[in-house]
Design brief:
37% helix; binds pyridoxal-5'-phosphate
Length: 230
C-alpha cells in the first residue's frame, strides 16, 4: 500500500510538471486510475487519497467491483459489446469507447427508461495511429459520425479518446495526440448542436506527460500507480 501511495504522488507530480510546461492549469487534467486486474483492497487506499475516477476496460470487472467501491465515478475505457451495455448503463460516469454506429444506437436505446431519457456521457474513440489492432473510428469518419450520433437524444458527446501505440520513446507518439486535438477542434468548429468537445482522453502510464502537453483533459493511468499487471 505504501508503494502505491508513493507511485500516486509521483504520478500527480508528473501531471503538475507536464501541465506547467505546457502553460496549462494542472487542475484541468483529470486522472483516471485504471484498475483492471487490481483487487478492491488495493484500490481503496488510492480512492482514499482522493482518486475517485476509476477506469475499467471490461464490463464484468467493472460490475464486480462496483458494489465494493461506493462513491467511485467509473469510466468504461475498453471495447464495449452491444449486448453488455445493459449491465453498465446505470453504473458509468463516462464511456470512452464509442466506436461504431450499432453501439451508438444501443446506448441511445438503453438511455430511454420508462418515459424519460437519461443521456449517457460518451467519448468517440478514434484510431489516430491507424494500427490494425486498435479499435476506434478512422479520423476522417469522425466528423460525420459525431454529427449523426449527436442527433440521438440518449447520447451526450463530450469529446474524443485515443490509444497511442506503445513506444519506448513517448515523443514518437506526440503526433497521435496532436492529431486527436486537431480533430476535436475541427469537430468543434462544425458547431453541432449538443456536442461539446470538452474532453480529450489520451495518455497512459508510458506517455501521459506528452499527452498533457498536447492537451489531454483526461489521462488513463494504470501500471504507474498499481505496478505491472501480471
Ligand atoms: C490498460 C489501459 C490503460 C492504462 O494502461 P497503463 O499502461 O497501465 O497505464 C489505459 N487505457 C486503456 C484503454 C487501457 O486498456
Amino acid at each position: 500500500v505504501d508503494q502505491l501511495l508513493v507511485n500516486l504522488k509521483e504520478v500527480r507530480e508528473e501531471i503538475d510538471r507536464a501541465a506547467r510546461r505546457a502553460g496549462r492549469n494542472p487542475a484541468e487534467v483529470q486522472l483516471v486510475a485504471v484498475t483492471k486486474t487490481v483487487s478492491a483492497d488495493r484500490i481503496i487506499p488510492v480512492v482514499q487519497e482522493g482518486v475517485v475516477h476509476l477506469g475499467e476496460n471490461r464490463v464484468q470487472e467493472l460490475t464486480d467491483k462496483y458494489p465494493l467501491l461506493p462513491g467511485v465515478k467509473w469510466h468504461l475505457i475498453g471495447h464495449l459489446q452491444t449486448n453488455k451495455v445493459k449491465y453498465i448503463i446505470d453504473k458509468v460516469h463516462l464511456i470512452h469507447s464509442l466506436d461504431r454506429w450499432a453501439l451508438a444506437e444501443e446506448l441511445n436505446k438503453r438511455a430511454h427508461t420508462g418515459g424519460t431519457i437519461n443521456p449517457l456521457a460518451v467519448l468517440v474513440q478514434v484510431n489516430v495511429s491507424g494500427e490494425a489492432s486498435k479499435f476506434g473510428l478512422e479520423p476522417n469518419l469522425v466528423p460525420d459520425f459525431v454529427k449523426e450520433a449527436a442527433a440521438l437524444p440518449g447520447l451526450r458527446i463530450m469529446g474524443l479518446m485515443t490509444m497511442a501505440p506503445y513506444e519506448t520513446d513517448p515523443e514518437r507518439v506526440r503526433p497521435v495526440f496532436r492529431g486527436l486535438r486537431l480533430l476535436a477542434r475541427e469537430v468543434d468548429r462544425m458547431g453541432i448542436p449538443g456536442v461539446l468537445m470538452k474532453h480529450l482522453s489520451m495518455g497512459m502510464s508510458n506517455d501521459f506527460p506528452v499527452a498533457i502537453e498536447e492537451g489531454a483533459t483526461i489521462i488513463r493511468v494504470g501500471s504507474s500507480i498499481f505496478g505491472a499487471r501480471t
